[in-house]
Structure of Glycosyltransferase:
Amino acid sequence: MEEPLVSIITPVFNAEEKIISFLDAVAHQDYPRDCYEIIIVDNGSTDQTREKIASYSGDVTLLQRTDLQNPYAARNKGLLHAQGDLMVLLDVNCTPTTQWLRSGINRLQDPTVDLVGGQVSFTYSEEETVGEWYDSLLFVDMEDLIQRGQSCAGGNLFFKRKVLDKIGSFPEKQRSGMDLYWTKKASNSGFNLVYDARAEVHYPARRLRPLLKKIFRVGTGQPKVWIENDMHPLKLVALIFYQLVPPGTKVLRDKIRRRGKPTMNKSFGRLWLIHYLQQIVLASGWAKGLIHYYRTKS
């Protein structure tokens, strides 16, 4: 049986330190190399990223998108160039396991499946900080995102070309939250999004400060997703204020049980404080995003 042609699309920005190891991991998959193309879209790097890609020995297509600096604009450039029957979005921070591509494509060949979100497993620095632990517990939980909301992050996402043809490309005006918006739009259009743990990538957990910056940035993009999927603005306002209430412990304990390790319970108090802090930061992002949404609508 002939394998389908696959297009793997990755946006990059100032990724000179990781790009070669990333390309090596993508190029050495348990899937015929002549049946998938690797498309890297540089989003205006100022380091040696482009030069390193150009000198790479493997077969890689290098594109550029510099008029707008966000990952969605870069992804759209890659999608326009893609020749595959099946599309894969993969972030440069993600290191795929050797069976990653085969697993995702096999699941996508089920005629009842249109999109597949793969597993994101976190790795830690040598110090293994509490901030890193919290990141690995609460964020990019692809299984939970898909089961609860029929949407997911776009850093490890497989989908059929017909999805793109039907719902169009990613919105480009916001820098965060549009992968959740796009996958939710696909689900609302009748496409089936599923989770597959075997399509696994490894992702470095963030320390506390960059994690909080990421939370705020993602929060600014979420109001557009929710309001355009029929959430009443007053409900979002209520959610913003609700985030200021100190959280309980159940969610965090459940995450440790499901995604963490027993030693994390010894630092539960510090993890809980970070949990509360991220609620406040997230609420601030939602408030900014809500204001921005109506300013741009007027």
